[in-house]
Structure formats: C-alpha cells, structure tokens
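Morning - fe (ii) ion inputs below, output right after.
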Amino acid sequence: MLVFGNVIAIDEAKARVRLKLPDMDDYETPGWIFVPQACTVGDKSYNLPAINTLVAAVMDSEMQDGCLLGALYNDEDVCILGDKNVKYIKFEDGAYFKYDKTTGFFEGKAPNKIYMEAPVIELKGDVVNTGNFSSTGQVSDNKSSMQAMRDVYNSHTHTCPDGTTSTAMGQM
Ligand SMILES: [Fe+2]
C-alpha cells in the first residue's frame, strides 16, 4: 500500500530507513525500509534522505517491509526552484551542481575543493581564472615550455663591440 511518512532513522551502511506515519497514528515501521538507488551492481550510487524528510513509500499489508518511492517537498521544506529546464542538487553547506538547458550553463561549486584525477584532463575553450595558477610540472604554450625559455635566458650572452658579455645576472 502507498503510505506517506517521515524518516526517523537511517541505516547509513545498508541504505535503509525507518519511517513514522502521521496518517496511521504515528505508526513507526518496525523494519528497515529500502531506499532505492540508481545502481547497485558494478556501478554503485549512494543517496539517502535526511532525518525528518517527508517521503512516499510502498509497504506490504502487514506494514513490516517496504520500499521508499522518494522524498517529497511540502509547506515546511519548500521546493527550491520553479523552472522545469533546470536540474539542480543543492547541499546544506552551499555546494551545488546545476544545469540550465535554456542557457547551456553548467555550474558546480564546493566550499573546499574540487578534485579531478585522470592521466589527461583536457579543457576545450578559453580558461579564465581569478586566482593564482601553479603547476608542479611543466607549463607550455604553443611555442615552447617555460623551462625551455628559462634555459635560453639563463645561458644567453651578447656579443658587443668590446667583447662578449657574461650570462644574465638574474637567473630564472
Ligand atoms: Fe640579454
């Protein structure tokens, strides 16, 4: 049967919850209710509702076992957007993923760090940043690397009428 309730307990290791059902005299489900995930074999996803989240669930006739259908907005926890063209996941600490298909603008924000790892990370397009840029490897443009420029600069001399000058005093 279809029920509506609030999450009162979370089994974080097994992705299950227990519910309290206000429409059934605050009946508390004795067993753990499954929280459906996008994928669980091979590829695995993880997403759990918070305590007090209003959810819909289907329960067996004995109200013992069940499965969550999803979390629901309500008057207390109101919907964050009013635009069907936007996909948005917003976190309590200010982090978010957002895509608006009317503008083609994908946004991601994290309060601490965004980390990506791969043998090659390729960006196609101009890169604009407002902070510093650093590398523990080589930095190159379409002509040569900064190390190649440094090697030329540090060893270069000039030939003058009175003789050859020494290498540059300030070494890079
Ligand atoms: Fe010079």
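Note: The helical segments are 146-155.

O.
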